[in-house]
Structures are given as C-alpha cells and as structure tokens.
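[step 3/7] fold_predict: job queued, chain A
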Amino acid sequence: MCLRGSVCLVLAIVVCPTATIAQDIAAPDTSSVVRKNLAPVSDEVLQVTLPRAVQTTLDNGLRVLVLEDDRSPIVTMQLTISGAGPLYESRDLAGVAAMTARMLREGTTNRSNSDILEQVARLGANLNSSSAFGSEAASVSASGLSRNMEEWFEVMRDILLNPTFPESEFERLRQEQRAGLRQQRTSSGFLANERFSAAVFGDHPAATRSATEASLDAMSTEIIAQWHRERYAPQNSILSIAGDVDASDIVSLLNDRLADWERSDFVAQLPPNPEAPAVGQIYLVDRPDSAQTTIYMGGLALDRRDPDYIPLTVMNAVLGGGPSARLFLNLREEKGYTYGAYSFFSALKYPGSWRASADVRTEVTDGGMTEFLYELGRMRDEPVAAAELEEVKRSIVARFALSLERPTSLLNYSTTREIYGFEPDYWETYPEQVMAVTPALVQSMAEKYLNPETIQIVVVGDASEIREVMEQYGPVDVYDTEGDLIEDE
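[step 4/7] structure written:
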C-alpha cells in the first residue's frame, strides 16, 4: 500500500508515483508561538524516594497494598479484579463484563438500590464499579472520610460479595444501553474509535469497543451472575488503599470482613497478543452533512512491560503529547485547522495501540492529512533537536514530581509496580530513565512504531466531500455509521 506523502517507506520524503503532493513540504513556521509551559526542573535529575506501600496477602489470596497518609482525613480504596474484564468476553456477549460491574450497585441480599444510594450519600462517600472495553480487569472503588470508613467499606463489601442482580434493574439498564447504542453512532469520535480498533486489533478482543443489540439481547441475569461468581476471585485481585489509615488496623479489618470471600480455582488466561496489521489501509466512515472530519491514524504499539515504554513516552510527548507538541503547534497554532491535535498510546498486559488524531474542518481535510503525515515523517527522518528534547523530558519529569504530592498517585504507582512485576525501585529511577533518552533513541522509536508500511488511517466525515481527497492517498474502504462496508456500485 502507498499512502501519499507518508506511507511510502519514508514519510513525507519519498512520494508514491501516483501522488500529486509536492515532495518539498516546508516545516511549519512556529517561531511566533509562545511556549508557556516550560518545565521548572533544575539541571539536576530529580532524585526521589517514594514511600512504599505496606504489602500483605490475605488467607484467600487477595493482595493488599496500604499507603498511610494522614495529611487529609480521606481514605481511597481501589479493587482491581483481573480476569473479569471485557478482554475475556465472547463477541456474542460483548458488554457482559461492564454490565456485571454496573449491576453490582443495583441491589444486594442486604440492601436495595435505593438503600445503597442513600447510605453512600449519608456517609459522604463515593462508590463506583466499572469495567472498560479493552481492559482485562473489573474494578470496584470507594472513598470517604476515615472516621466512618468501616461503614462505607461495609457497603463496598456488600456489593462485591452479595449482589443479587435484580431483574427489574437489569431490564432498566439494558434499555438505557440500547438507547446509548443509537446515540453513540451519532458521535464521530465513537465511529472513528470503533473502526480504528477493528483495523489495528483485527480478531483480538481489544477490537470490540461496544456492546451490540444482539449481545444485549443475549444477556440475562443468570449469565451476569455466573460471570460474577466465576471471575470475581480474590486470588486474582489487588486491593489498594491510600489515606488516613493505620496499615495494621486496616489489614485486621480486611481479614475479618473479607473472610467469606472464598478463593476459587479460576485462573485468568490472556488471549494471544494481537498481530500488527501486515499492510496499511484507509477507512472512511460516511457521516453525511458532517461539518468536520475526524482523523485517526496509527497502529499497534507495545505492552507495559516492554523496555521501549519510557523512550516511546518521550517520543510521543514530542510528537503530540500536549499543546506544546509538534502536532498541536502545526495543525492548530500555525495552520488553524483544528482546536487540537494530539497523539496517544496505550500499554497494558498486551500490546495496545498508538494513534494521532484531530477533528478538522471538512474543507481542510486534505491539508490536515498533509500535515499529519509530514509530522510523522519528520519524527522518523530527522533527529529531534537537543533543546526541544530537553524541554520535553523536563516537562515529563516535572509532571511526575507534581504527581508525588497526591497519595492516590503514589498508590497507583505501587499498584502498577505490583501488576506488572516491576523492580522495587522502578519509580525511583523513572526520572533518570526519562532524562537518559537521546535524540537517536527517540528517532529509533519513531522508526519502529510509526511504521509507514502498516499505518491504519480512519476518517469520519461526509464521503461526498472527502472521498476523492482520501483516494489521493490510496484505496479507500467506505463504511456507513452502522459499521457496515458500503460496496461500490
């Protein structure tokens, strides 16, 4: 496949023979842009010693992390349940993991839905349960004052262990989701994400981004109860606690209150990793009369344990990590095509995706494509300037330093270290690892991950206005907003 101006071995330098774009695209003039977010970091690499969470494992196999912090009378709890997420769903039951998590709060053997809402509100607490598409886990979280922690924790414990999945509440949520399915198909962002995920992940479960009418019809309270019974297992879970608590007291409480959460034989087995697309492809989702074009482009990235994670973080920050990054400065500040242009990548227990994206006015779709492909090519073909890289690295380290002031961030770092099996000093060495990234390493990350041969491009917009534009870059598959391929007449 040969995409104009970019997907021809060398991005924005070597052009397909059939392309009409000039080969000598000039760099955008960003000399007048004022960068206001310079990182306030000294010349010395940030040296930190993070407080270590107290770690223990209960008799039922539940791993517990407790980070004591008495600066505020607040306690936060986050339970991560591996094996209970949508990554393990069959396609005919897409959404069952999210529905199960949501139904936990709809009634227990001890409390009705209204009882749960009233008690949480009276205690001034927060209670949530969720399981996002693409995740291999479900989560149950709660937070509130330390002085009444035992009371709101009891509500959390109750929804975790004793949900009844009442039929009436299930039907209400199912109807709400059906309405949501219709609504989301009016969103260009959802349509782009759906098509992009299918393009990048193929047959992998991460390609699924939503329940369907058929999967909602196939669900039942019995199926949901079985998902909960089999997969909400303590030996596959981590309970992270941060705030105004005493570690020994909270562990004693957990041993008492969670003694009836019994260990099971269930072992979560991740599906095989997704395979990177062999060739690049362009997908157009026709959204008639759309005033703008949503552009996504990207491919497969890496899992969180890959040693490329930190240098790729730096590369991404240069390319599109914020309002001082290249994509934003070019497409918004210089060209005025969009309100914002960014790049992202995800990294979990399996390789996630990277993507660059923006919403541009329909009439500048061609210009937006040109500048996106130019910036991706520049990352691959030119070493980043030392001064630009230094600023980006210091900004990353500065944000990390500020995050250390929040107990919940510190706990998240401990949880991440536990989930992925990182070395005890992983976060202490994080600033040093960031600052050690060189221009050559950044360029090598771009060469490796911004692959012009396999890039997947998705645009959502009015096909009557933008199809010819996109065909300049290569063959285009056109889909409707229902996700169906439109066959050429």
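[step 5/7] annotate
The CA atoms of residues 103 and 272 lie 29 Å apart.
The first helix runs from residue 96 to 103.
exit 0
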